[in-house]
Amino acid sequence: MNSVPTADNLATNKVSWRQAVAKYENPDLQRSVWQVVNTVIPYCILWYLMYRSLEVSYWITLALSALAAGFLVRIFIIFHDCGHAAFFKSQKANDLGGFIAGVFTLTPYFGWRREHAMHHATAGDLDRRGVGDIWTLTVKEYLELSPRRRLEYRLYRNPLVMFVIGPLFIFLIRHRFAGPTASKRERHSVCWTNLAILGIVALMGVTIGIKAFVSVHLPIVMIASAAGVWLFYVQHQYEGVYWERHEHWDYVTLALRGSSFYKLPKILQWFTGNIGFHHIHHLSPRIPNYNLERCHEENPMFQEVKPITLFASSKSLTFRLWDEEGRKLVGFGYLKDLQNKHAMSQQ
Question: Which residue range is the domain that position 52 belongs to?
Fold first, then answer.
C-alpha cells in the first residue's frame, strides 16, 4: 500500500507535489468572468445604495460599508490573481484586469506585482526580509536597536497602527508614488492609476459632491484595507510558523509550514477569495483562487497542514518578534522574561 506524502518529505519529492497542483493551475474563462460579475456589480450597487442612504441615516451608510468592503477585498483577490497571471490565460488580459482592479483598490499594478513576487520568493527567509512583507525583527536585532528605533518598531507593531493607520497610509498615500527602484513601466503604472483615480474623484465631485464621495468611500477603504492587511499578516505570523536563515530555507517547507491554512467561515471564505488556503497558494501561485479549495480537498498531502480558526488567529496579535533560539514568534513580554532570567543567573 502506498503511503501518502507528508509535508515533511514534499520538499524532497518535487514530482509528487508538482503533479498534484498542475491540473488546478489552468484559469477557467467562464469562472473568471463570473467572478468579476458577481463581485464588481454587487460592489457598485452597494456603493450607490450607500450614497442614497446618506439622505436617511449615516448609520445605514456605515452598516452597508462593511458589506461593500467585503466585495472590495474580493476585487483585490482578482487583482492579486492577475498579478500571478492566474486569472486569465492571456498575459495581456491579466495585465488589463490587474490595472482596472488596481484602480478600484487604489494600488498600482506593476509595482505591486514585482514586490509581491519578491514576497513569494523570500517569505520566511530571515536573510531576505524587507520587500513586500511585514517588518519583523528577531529578538537579538531588537535588543541591538537604539531606544528611538525600538520605539519606532513598537509603534509599527501596534495593532492600531498596523491595521488602521498603516493600511490607510499605504493605500491612500504610499501607493500614489513610485519607489526609488521602480522601473519605467512601474512608474507609468503609478501615473496612469493616479490619473484614473483622479478622474473618478473629479467625476464624483461634479455629480454627487466631494463630501458625499468621501462619506461613502472612506469607510469602505478603511474596513477593506484593515481586513486585507490582517489577512496578509496572519498568513505568515501565527503560532508554529516556519522562519529560517537563507542557507537552510526551503520553498516548499515555507509554503506548507510557513503559510497558514486560515479556515474561515464559508461566507468569509467567499469574500476573501479562498486566500485562507494560503499554503496551497504559496506552493503554486498560478492556481486561480476558485481552484484553491478543490486542490486542498482532493489531495490528502495538503490536508496535513493544521488549520487556524478565526478565533485562534487572534493570538497572532500578541506576536512581535522572532526568537531564533526558540524558533518561534514571541511578544514583547518575552523580553521581560529574558531579563528576569538573566538577573537571576547573575545572583
Answer: 10-346
